[in-house]
Known about the structure:
This protein has helices spanning 58-65, 88-94, 111-118, 126-136, 138-141, 153-165, 183-198, 210-216, 234-238, 241-247, and strands at residues 20-27, 35-42, 47-51, 73-78, 81-82, 96-99, 171-175, 202-206, 219-224, 227-233. It is of the alpha/beta class. The protein has a domain at 45-59 and 86-221 and 235-250: P-loop containing nucleotide triphosphate hydrolases (Rossmann fold, 3-Layer(aba) Sandwich), CATH 3.40.50. A six-stranded mixed beta sheet has the order 6-7-8-3-9-10, with helices on both faces. It has a four-stranded antiparallel beta sheet with strand order 2-1-4-5. α3 packs parallel to α6 and α6 (153-165) runs parallel beside α7. The two termini are 35 Å apart.
Amino acid sequence: MVDNQVGLPVAVAPHADPILIAENVTAGYGGPPVISDVNLRAARGEITAILGPNGAGKSTLLKVIAGVIRPTQGTISLRGEDLSMLQPQELVRTGLSYIPQVANVFPSLTVYENLEMGGYVLRTGVKERAERLCEMFPSLKACLRRPARTLSGGERRMLAIARGLMVDPSVLLLDEPTAGLAPRFVQSVWEHLIAVKDQGVAVVIVEQNTRQTLTYATWAYVMAFGRNHIEGNGGDLLNDAALVDAYIGKG
Ligand SMILES: Nc1ncnc2c1ncn2[C@@H]1O[C@H](COP(=O)(O)OP(=O)(O)OP(=O)(O)O)[C@@H](O)[C@H]1O
Ligand SMILES: [Mg+2]
């Protein structure tokens, strides 16, 4: 963006144009709320991270956004449209794709069949879309006919991400996509996520590895006890001594 009056570049504020807005969201599992009054904004072409200690409510926030559980208060909107009454499969059609931490591929189906399943809401173009994703994930191309259970942990994670991309989402929600992976696979997952956000997707990621996530995140939300705790630019938070002391020691 350029300031027309003086001709100098002007920094675009993070989340200046969010596609996804969660506002004052309270939710739980039938008992007392697990998350309360939580806010989050995510823009296309950015990686938005949700960080925080175990049990902080990160996965719960992602589940509410994905329509897996309903908020008891607050709203979730995508391009200004309220999502709260939509079913998860309807949310997929609106451009929201959710990759849970576990059970994110079908082990007995082949890699190609998993991709087909990911594109189940597409009426046409499934084959073409799968072919394009194979260009992006070359390790999958070599094993399209193999059952997913025969893939390595890293390849399975790639398959889960590729499945989530079959619907050409505008928002990709991922719950700990690098958990338990060897360092070279962790790096590869990040490289793919950066490529995905560079294609204009709003990538929203829950992560445990705080330091690495902050190096890639455009904006990060740190949750604690089910609430927003700190938020900021990834680089700024990385330099925040209090945050480093509180959370980065472990990763
Ligand atoms: N299906 C469920 N039913 C009841 N309580 C749940 C359920 N899932 C999570 N909780 C509770 O909600 C709280 C927040 O859990 P959540 O999974 O959102 O945390 P998290 O920040 O993702 O933690 P972690 O880093 O360990 O994945 C925890 O106290 C957890 O026990
Ligand atoms: Mg979790």
